[in-house]
Input
Amino acid sequence: MLDKLEEVARTALAELEPIQDEEPLQRWKVAHLGRNSTLMSVFDQMGSLSKEERPAVGRRANEVKRMLEAALTAKVTEMQEKALQKSLQAEQLDVTLPGRPARLGRLHPNTQTMREIYRIFSEMGFQIYRSREVETDEFNFGLLNIPPHHPARDMWDTFHTTTPGVLLRTHTSPGQIHVMRQNAPNPIRACLPGMCYRFEQISARKDTQFAQVEGLVIDRDVTLADLKGTLNDFYRRLFGPGVKTRFRANYFPFTEPSGEMDVECFLCGGDGCGMCSGSGWLELLGCGMVHPTVLLNGGYDPEKFSGFAFGMGPERTTILRYHIEDIRHLWTNDLRFLEQF
Ligand code: FA5
Output
């Protein structure tokens, strides 16, 4: 029996030596340490041995079993080691190579301006509203006191859809009617930002697509002084206390009286240059006291309520803030330009 055990140990260790894969290793384990292995049959036969033989065979059988188990553990560790070395060599990393920097995105300069505008108006108690870019002729013109064939329509030539009477809005002013109808007869202090579209001759200061931020204030006893005070305060907060602005009379069918606000040209400092067409001033916005007809169309009694409105172009503000000489840079998507902001 002792010879048989030595034979088992020798054969098992010899067979284990060349094994390098998981599957033959499992087969080896079943063959030499499994229930039906020769080693286990020795344990089964212990009862049939003589009293003298039993202790020596039992001790040796246990030694062989522990030896084979230790050899199996050592083989598993060796195989894991080899697999790790192999994968380290196959997927070699050069940790001394400089990493690839993650490119951080940034906000478009016009979005930055729009957010600054919202921030300031929010501080002044204005609520920001979204309004639609595709409008009806009625809201873009009719309800703003511009009936069909009114000559003022020439100021806002636009893009029409194939559905009659539906167009891309030329300004954010139709939002005034939406906000008034939602809130009448309560007071309003609203800001309406969004894209506008015009069939326009493109130039350094004009594009066919641009954003506007509309402002609307409706209450009892609102005056032109409130309009001027609000806008002067706004531009001082945006451009700094030293900014030079001026109001000029103008005409809009939906306000009476109407005006425009200019800022001193950043390029020539007021002397007159190509940017400001020689005037020394750059136009910022249109504004005025809400026309009684528009108040009525919005659901307010013009005998009791008055209000002011304005529509500013954030692109113009952006080119002023960053001294950009051509508005078209903003929408050409050239990263060399955009990454400067
Ligand atoms: C209007 O659009 C009026 N709805 C503004 C208004 C609102 C007046 C409320 C009274 C009461 P205007 O066409 O002037 O007005 O445009 C207003 C501003 O939008 C301009 O001062 C300018 O800053 C900007 N803007 C107009 N057209 C363009 C354009 N083609 N490209 C870039 N910005 C423009």
Summary: Residues 53-90 form the longest helix (38 residues).
